[in-house]
Amino acid sequence: MSLCFIGFLNVFFFWIAFFLFSNAYYVLGAFFLGLVLLIDFFIFNPKGYPYRYVAPALVLLTILVIYPIYFTVKTAFTNYGTGHYMSKEEAIERLLYDPVYTYQIEDEAVEYKVFLAYDGLIPIYDDFLLLFKINGEIFVAEKPVPVKRKGREVLLSEAQLLVIESTDYQLVPRSEDLSEIRMIISGEKTYRAFYSPREEFLRLNAPVFKSRIAQFYLQKADFVHPNGNKYALRIDRTGEWSFLRIERLYRLDLTQTMENDRPKTRLVVVNNRTNRPLIEREGSFYDVNEKGEEVYLIGYIDFVGWKNFARVLRDPRIAGPFLKIFAWTFLWALLSVVLSLAVGLPFALVLNDPKLKGRNIYRTLLIIPWAIPVFISALVWRNGLLNESYGVINKFLLPALGLPAIKWMNDPFWARVGVLLVNIWLTYPYMMTISLGALQGIPYELYEAAMIDGAGKMKRFWNITFPLLMTVIAPLLVSSFAFSFNNFTIIYLITGGGPPIPGSTTPTGYTDILISYVYKLAFQAGTGQDFGLAAAISILIFFLVGGISYVNFRFSGVFEEVGR
Amino acid sequence: MRKFLIVVLVLMAFLVFAQAKLTIWCSEKQVDILQRLGEEFKAKYGVTVEVQYVNFSDIKPKFLTAAPEGQGADIIVGAHDWVGELVANGLLEPIPNFQELSQFFSSGLSAFSYGGRLYGLPYALEAIALIYNKDYVSEPPKIVEEMIKLAKQIDQEFAGEVRGLIFPATTFYYVVPFIFGYGGYVFKDTPTGLDVKDIGLANEGAIKAAKLLKRLVDEKVIDPADNYQIMDSMFKEGKAAMIINGPWAIKDYRDAGIDYGVALIPEPEPGVVARPFVGVQGFMVNSKSPNKLLAMEFLTNFIAKKDTMYKLYLADPRLPARKDVLDLVNDNPDVVAFTLSAGNGIPMPNVPQMGFVWGAMDDALNIIVNGKATPEEAMKNAVERIKAQIQ
User: Fold this and answer.
1) Residue A520: which of A500, A544, A502, A539 has the closest Cα?
2) Phi, psi of B312, rounded to the nearest 5 degrees
């Protein structure tokens, strides 16, 4: 039974790996192969026995943690982002085989006609012949055969144009005029006229020809004339699909360059019309047009080394406001934790008092802010409460108290107060809940002893409750700090980082924390996305948060607590 | 007779075999009509057209994520200013030049052209205009001075219950008509395309417009805290006399029963015409789609045709991108008014560098209306920021 299961697991993982390999995800495929081998080792080797219990966790850890980390680190060293979306291999394949990169030699379309084999009366769409009339000569071509593949995708297929006499095809009736030919006979098989753009009656089949034949077999097909000319299906000036004489724009070539006095052979892509090699720069191919101007063609993902990290540290646009933002981020995380604890803990103390009636109801009500999805409550805060002209606070609350309206979105100080308010509102139930749990664990005898010694309420709290509470919740506070440090959602939803800081050369705002600033830099500001830079910065942030958390743990003496 | 039989049988064979499928991503406005057109296409070609509704602002990001993996739609319907970024990533298929295109407005075609190639088939043009509520405004103001006077009058008369004028003052797109009107520009238009090194957002004209905006805020004609949602919902509730908005919002206002009118955005000074951004909506083909040939066929031999364009117009009444369709719809006063507004307009740049402009300018306007810096400083700083980012 269990063997059966392991067998299935093996098959499943091998299938995943195979699937990934066939779709060119080699690294992920290797991950899965490694995993399945590891699991088998655990199960079939007596030495690995204890490990079999961690195997499921190991699988999830690999897929959900280790691989993403590997991918982030890998991306940080590349220029992956707008303009660099595909592998170099794919970029070159496109330049060489994509129908876009061809040019027409003659504007004059070639006359052609399509013939289909039939099974009784039912057309067989994948068994067809094409007749061409080129310069008065008639050629026949069979279904194009794939010549270049990538995985399962056909990049290019070809068919030879054959002189009728050299084949065993017979035209019925024999004629020099394509429109008169009704059939092509080959031994037992008969191909009947199916489509021609020039014959009114056969034109009716145009949609079928396009959707059943052209779409599947002629999209990326070259028809090669005995003299080497190529013909392919293209939209001509009338908007018709016609066969036109084309030539590929680019070819692959080897060049010799001298590097360090040693000849080095390199593959380059060469423009067939100008015979000039393409310019490759910073992971992009450029061609040179007639006027001598560089024209951007296509970009690919390229390894750039430490460039992204260097940018973070050296580029004044990023490094300039970095300190300012870092200081606010730190303050924001600290205040979020301290203030929400300051709100949550008193509630917990009150709820912990057995004399309070209806504790469950109060507790439920107090937990509500935590239960409502952040996105909803954040938007309610932003549009319903903090809005400067129509928000509840400015429209009803402050005037009722005789206070002037506050610019929640446009005043640096108040915007910061605003985001903190919202974050406290969202976080205090969590603080309250963990405090409640920790309070349960404080033995009542301690209080009794303190009361006998004549300690007052405050003294009891500061000398017994608070220290004992802290030993339990300090690690949670540290993780809460780390979470606030990167709490992108709140900032993004409430102020979007605004109000803007005047005089900055980057999209910086007073309430921007590191992560939202990075987001703006990498995804919002400008020419699209810069995954490489974003990955580099997230690695740096990881070390920052990790470092701060480590110091915090040491500082709060949690490890010693556990160690004792 | 036998020929006839063959044709009939071919058509019957359609019902038997599995087929290629075209997938289209479009926003709410086009879903219904494209589904109907898809049925027509299927009847003729036997190819199922699956129309998927995607939020307008999500189409581009979703396409950017899915298309490189070969998962994107075959055709997306979107705005022309996406073209630069999508082409840079090699995700759009150029549309060949064919006769039918001569029927399209050149402004629409040039908006979708990038690096000398056409990457989208335009179907509607749009530009913002002044939309006013006839209950409060009998005659739309022609110049900004009149608009200010009228807005103040309405503000006083209804004691804040009805606002005279609302538009999002901190959103660049809505302030552009004044900036361009005074002679500001984003990127210099040269015969070889846009020169992204030459930015005209801190020139004399642009600063004049910024000062005008500041004045509107100082005189309490507009509220700097207003955003699109506030403007839209206030007008729908009949609590706004004048707003500046685009043709996409008209249907909602009609449904809300507002007696509205559309007019040109008032001239900032007599003789200085307000020039809004012109946006073009169109169809783009995924270059990594396995069904490129059919997708092209769908565009060139079906969508581009006059009657299809007319149907699209009826479903989504915006200024048609085809000349002969515009002739058919001249009886609609809204379309005429938006057409006039777009006629004064300037196509939104479709270069990827435009991405830097939005954020920088929104921030600059925000700083101006909140008085954190003078209009000159804020505009100059924004241009510095754009230049620093373009490098």
Assistant:
1) A500
2) -60, -40
Contact call for residues B227 and A410 (beta carbons, < 8 A):
no
8 Å CB contact of B91 and A123: no
For residue A527, the model assigns a pLDDT of: 57
Q: With an 8 Å Cβ cutoff, are A299 and B378 in contact?
A: no
pLDDT for position A465 = 84
Asked if B94's CB is within 8 angstroms of A527's CB, the reply is: no
A528/B20 Cβ within 8 A: no
For B93, the closest chain A residue by CA position comes to A100
Q: How far apart are CA A137 and CA B14, in angstroms?
A: 35
| Contact criterion met (CB below 8 Å) for B317 and B125 | no
Nearest CA in chain A to B17: A212
Terminal Cα distance for chain A, rounded? 46
Q: What is the pLDDT of residue A7?
A: 83
Average of pLDDT values for A338-350?
Answer: 92
Q: What is the pLDDT of residue B11?
A: 44
Give residue B378's pLDDT.
92
d(CA A351, CA A363): 7
Q: How confident is the model at residue A1 (pLDDT cuts 50, 70, 90)?
A: low
Q: Do B93 and A526 touch (CB under 8 A)?
A: no
Cα angle: A152, vertex A157, A160; to 5 degrees: 155
Helix axes A466-485, A322-351, angle to 10 degrees: 140
Structure tokens that stand for A501 in this block? 């800081």
Give just the sign of the alpha carbon dihedral A486, A488, A489, A491: positive
- The shortest C-alpha distance from B52 to chain A (Å) reads 21
* Interface touch B91/A390, C-beta < 8 Å: no
Q: How far is CA A553 from the centre of its chain?
A: 34
Stretches where chain B sits below pLDDT 50 are 1-18
> Quick one: pLDDT at residue B19?
60
Angle at B102 between CA B99 and CA B108, to 5 degrees: 130
Give residue A143's pLDDT: 93
| H or E element in which residue B335 lies | helix B333-343
Min Cα–Cα distance to chain B from A239, Å? 5
Interface of B with A in 202-231 (CB under 8 A): 223-226, 229-230
The confidence score (pLDDT) of residue B184 equals 92
Q: Does B372 touch chain A (CB under 8 A)?
A: yes
pTM of structure:
0.80
Cα distance between residue B153 and residue B134, in whole Å:
15
Taking contacts as CB-CB distances below 8 angstroms, the residues of chain A near B349 are none
- Residues A527, B89: C-beta atoms closer than 8 Å: no
Whole-number CA gyration radius for chain B: 23
Measure in Å the smallest separation between the Cα of B378 and chain A Cα atoms.
Answer: 7
**Terminal-to-terminal C-alpha distance of chain B:** 71
The reply to whether A40 touches chain B by the CB within 8 Å rule is no
Q: Is the peptide bond before A499 cis (omega within 30 degrees of 0)?
A: yes
Q: Phi and psi dihedrals of A125, rounded to 5?
A: -70, -20
Task: Note the helical H segments in B166-227.
Answer: 172-181, 204-218
pLDDT of residue B372: 86
* Pairing relationship of beta strands B75-79 and B21-26 according to DSSP bridges: parallel
Task: Kindly write down the DSSP assignment for every residue of A88-135, as one continuous string.
Answer: HHHHHHHHHH-GGGEEES-SSPBEEEEEEEEETTEEEEEEEEEEEEET
The whole-number pLDDT of residue B120 equals 95
Length of chain B: 391
Task: Tell whether omega for the bond before A173 is within 30 degrees of 0, i.e. cis.
Answer: yes
**Mean pLDDT computed over A407-419:** 88
Residue B338 DSSP one-character state: H
Query: Which has more pLDDT, A264 or B102?
Result: B102
Work out the burial of residue B379: count CB atoms within 10 Å of its CB; fewer than 13 is exposed, 13-18 middle, 19 or more buried: buried
